[in-house]
Design a protein that fits this description.
It is a single chain. The protein starts with a helix and ends with a helix. The longest helix has 13 residues. Helix content is 47%, strand content 11%. The protein is mostly helical. Helix 3 crosses helix 4. It has one domain: Arc Repressor Mutant, subunit A. The chain is flat and about 55 Å long. The chain has 7 helices and 5 strands. The protein binds zinc ion (2 copies). One zinc ion binds next to loops. The site of one zinc ion (ZN) has 6 residues, from loops.
């Protein structure tokens, strides 16, 4: 089991790894492809940067709407689609059948809680090492990898245990 402390510590040190300002990163990614930077795109991007947050388009919409009441859900979908095409965000296929997006661009795995559905990032050098080794042996082209652990998160595990004992 990979402790959550490790995740948050590694996550908070993003700046130390010299990635610069995240908004600067978005502008560069968009400009490179001749795409415009809009305040709405920046707002969506900011929502995606929150640690361990893997929101659905509706969740992003609800938040961005507070700042930009005129924005439509369709626009949010378009922005998220654009972001996943250019690698600014990643489409995820876990946490039920709802589409979720991930703004963490570091190679990482996920831990999905089977009880509350929370999805935590698990950043570990072994994830990257494994992906690299696998790619060396694989004859095709690998564009993404997806590692997922599942079980009960630190909050749900004790409750689950108590309930089990009472039943
Ligand atoms: Zn949980
Ligand atoms: Zn993630």
């Amino acid at each position: 089991m990979i402790p959550n402390k490790e995740t948050s510590r590694r996550r908070s040190s993003r700046k130390e790894r010299g990635e610069g300002s995240p908004k600067g990163g978005l502008a560069a990614s968009l400009h490179l492809r001749g795409m415009r930077v809009t305040p709405q795109k920046l707002a969506v991007f900011t929502v995606l940067q929150r640690a361990n947050y893997h929101p659905t388009p509706d969740m992003v919409f609800a938040e961005v709407r507070r700042q930009y009441p005129m924005i439509s859900l369709g626009t949010v979908y378009q922005i998220l689609d654009q972001f996943s095409r250019i690698g600014v965000a990643r489409k995820m296929f876990s946490g039920g059948n709802r589409q979720r997006f991930d703004g963490n661009r570091q190679p990482h795995a996920h831990f999905v809680c089977e009880h509350c559905g929370r999805i935590d990032d698990v950043e570990h050098h072994l994830v990257q090492a494994f992906a690299r080794r696998f790619a060396q042996k694989f004859k095709g082209t690998i564009r993404h990898h997806y590692f997922e652990f599942s079980g009960l998160c630190a909050r749900c595990a004790p409750r689950h245990w108590v309930r089990k004992r009472l039943e």
